[in-house]
Structure formats: C-alpha cells, structure tokens
Design a protein that fits this description.
The chain has 388 residues and is α/β, with parallel strands linked by helices. The chain has two domains: 315 residues, TIM Barrel (Alpha-Beta Barrel); 61 residues. It is built from 15 helices and ten strands. α10 links the parallel β9 and β10. α5 runs parallel beside α6 and α10 crosses α11. The two termini are 15 Å apart. The structure holds 5-thio-alpha-D-glucopyranose and manganese (II) ion (2 copies). One manganese (II) ion binds next to α8.
Length: 388
C-alpha cells in the first residue's frame, strides 16, 4: 500500500474561504459555525496541508479597525509559525460587498472603480506581508445581466487599465509578485467578461507587462460549460502562463458546485494530474472547493484530506500508466514515424511547399488503419478501476 500522506513538496493549498465555508447557499442559512483564520490554519495543519491562501476580507473583515486587524494578524502569524504553513497566494474580495453589485474594475461608476483599485492595492500589501508570491484576480462581478448596461469593449479596457496599474505598483514597490487571472463563464453575474482561460490568455498579451501576468485556471469553471480543462491548462502551460491552479470538480451545466477534487469526473482529474506531473509543474495545487452542506468540521477535514489523497492516488496511477508496457507499446505504435514525411514539416520554404504539392498520398490506405484507441482507453480505465 502506498503512502498517500500529503507532504510539503506536494504543495497542497486551501483558501481560508474553502475550509471556512459555512455551507450557506442561495436557499439556506449557514450550517457550520464560523472559525477564525487562525483556527482554520490549525485545521489545515492537522490534515497536513502545505499552505493557506486568503482574500483580504477572509483575514481582515472589511470594517475592522486598525487594532482589530493587528490582533487578527498576530493570531494568524502565530498559527502559521506553529503549523509551518505558508501563504503562497493572496487575492482581493471584489464581489461580496454590495458596492460591487455592478462590478469592480469594470463598474460604470468611477467611484466604485477607484475604490476597487484602492482595495486591491491594500490587499496586495497584505498578501506580500504574509509572503504571497502569486496574486490572483477573479472578477466575480465583472459582467452583466443586461448588455444594455455596459459597453463590452469599455469593460475590457477598464480591466486592462487596472491590471496594468497593479503591475506598475508591484514593480514600484519592488514586490516579488506575479499575477494570475482566473476565468469563469458566469455566476454570480449572468455573464462574466473573459469567460475562459483561453480568453484570459489572449487578454494577457494586450497588457503592458504580459511577463508578470499568467492564469489561474479552475477546473469547475471550465467544466461548467463542458470544455476540456486539461486542454486549457496545457495551452496555458505551453505559453509559460500556468502560474497557479484551482482544483475541484463540477457537473457540467450546473451552478458552481466547487466539489471535492476528483469526486465527479475521475478520468478528467486523472488526465489533469498526469499532465501536471508529466510536465513538472512546480506551483501550488490549490483546492478551491468546499465540503458538502451536510458536513460538520470533521466532514470538512474528510473533504480536505480527500482532495489531497485523490490527487496522490492519481499521481501514482499516472506513474503506473507511464510504466505500463502494453500502454507504452500501443503509444509507440500510434506515434510510429519512419521519417519519410519529415521533409515537409517545420519552417516554410517555397521549395518545401512545391515538393509537398507534388507528393501523392494513398488516402484509403492511410485511413484504413485502426488506431487502437478503444484498447488504450480500456487499459486506462482499468488502471483507474484498480484491476490492472
Ligand atoms: C470564489 C470563487 C473562486 C475564486 C476565489 C478567488 S473566490 O470562491 O468561486 O473560484 O478562485 O477570488
Ligand atoms: Mn469555483
Ligand atoms: Mn477559483
């Protein structure tokens, strides 16, 4: 039996808002009492997590006085020291307070936009104070219910201007900080701007400091609209933009469920873990999810342990896949290459194009080859089902 105990090198992190989620939903009141940030750090220490992330207001309530804030920070710092947990990522809550009902950076009201920027500047300072190296932007309210209300191009420009401002601020302060943009298609707004990781990647290229900005793809956000999460993550990775990742699970076409990692689509979770491990992703594995509303705090621990344990089991399965002789033989067969076409690939030249135009292909012979993906997929399923 393998050891699935989480270790610091696995970089498993949780947000204060995840294990601290009280189980409130649009139809029902909280089912769990609220715990202080320090208490949540001890809980995460108990389940052997590596780090804890926070929104400014997860740590310091929006209306806290200076003295209250200092006391909370002191307790939080002590809990971190006692447990050895670190704070790899921080972010701003730009969605909860009524002031953000029509967006933060993209609001039509200049006072809201200025307040959102001010709040973020202070939240960046707070994150850096606790050692955060990645700063996430999730624009939960940056969208519309009615497109009569806002010019989409204006909203995108306002968003760009804000991110540019924060890049300059971080440089000015000498902060060792990277930004990670998190996409979501909808909820809490009817529709959100930059709805997928792909949209975010394109947006980043339009910034003044694209080198400082990457993405924080979230599994549930892409599964909500039924797209392949791993493909988006691969695109981000290939572009050098995978700065952070939010792991959880989700049934397509539903509200944002934030389910325990691997609890819904084990195959999608497997391909994701295999991808991250194969390429050697070194960032946090952040579980942005929460326990079912049926649970008490013992259940919250079960939830947190479950996320990490499933990740480690899938990591082991990925290694098994990579070492499986039959699977590797099939892959070698599928990827067979006698080199006869090599002359046509790579950089364009007129000669290459002309020779390729003159080449004849036996389409029927090529197409008649069976690719054996049925066998390959069954073998993968059997690894996951534990019979191989
Ligand atoms: C919120 C959201 C998440 C974001 C968090 C960061 S807050 O819980 O559903 O996807 O990552 O702002
Ligand atoms: Mn989510
Ligand atoms: Mn998230």
């Amino acid at each position: 039996m393998s050891d699935y105990t989480p270790k610091p090198e696995h970089k498993f992190t949780f947000g204060l808002w995840t294990v601290g989620n009280p189980g409130r939903d649009p139809f029902g009141a909280p089912v769990r009492s609220s715990k202080t940030p320090a208490e949540l750090v001890y809980l995460l220490g108990e389940v052997c997590a590596y780090g804890v992330n926070f929104h400014d207001n997860d740590l310091i309530p929006i209306d806290a006085t200076f003295t209250e804030a200092e006391a909370i920070k002191k307790d939080f710092r002590k809990a971190l020291a006692d447990t050895g947990l670190v704070v790899p990522m921080a972010t701003t809550n730009l969605f909860y307070d009524p002031v953000f009902k029509d967006g933060a950076f993209t609001s039509n009201d200049p006072k809201v936009r200025a307040y959102a920027i001010q709040k973020t500047l202070k939240a960046i300072d707070l994150g850096v104070e606790f050692g955060a190296k990645v700063y996430v932007f999730w624009g939960g309210r940056e969208g519309t219910e009615t497109d009569s209300s806002k010019k989409a191009t204006e909203a995108i420009k306002r968003n760009r201007e804000a991110i540019n401002f924060f890049c300059e601020y971080a440089l000015d302060q000498g902060y060792d900080l990277k930004f990670a943009l998190e996409a979501k298609p909808n909820e809490p707004r009817g529709d959100l701007y930059n709805p997928t990781t792909g949209h975010m990647l394109a947006f980043i290229e339009s910034l003044d400091h694209p080198e400082m900005v990457g993405v924080n793809p979230e599994m549930a956000h892409e599964h909500m609209v039924g797209i392949n999460f791993m493909h988006g993550v691969a695109q981000a990775w290939e572009a050098g933009k995978l700065f952070h990742i939010d792991l959880n699970d989700q049934y397509p076409g539903r509200y944002d469920q934030d389910l325990r990692f691997g609890s819904r689509d084990i195959k999608a979770a497997f391909y994701l873990v295999k991808f991250l491990e194969d390429v050697g992703y070194e960032g946090s594995r952040h579980f942005d999810a929460h326990a079912y509303r049926t649970e008490d705090f013992e259940g919250v621990k079960d939830f947190a342990r479950g996320c990490m344990r499933t990740y480690l089991i899938l990591k082991e399965k990925a290694a098994q896949f990579n070492a499986d002789k039959e699977i590797q033989a099939l892959l070698a067969e599928i990827n067979e290459d006698d080199g006869s076409m090599s002359q046509y690939f790579g950089k364009y030249s007129a000669e290459k194009a002309n020779t390729l135009k003159a080449q004849s292909f036996d389409r029927n012979a090529i197409a008649s080859r069976g690719l054996r993906y049925e066998r390959l997929d069954q073998l993968t399923a059997e690894i996951l089902l534990g019979v191989r």
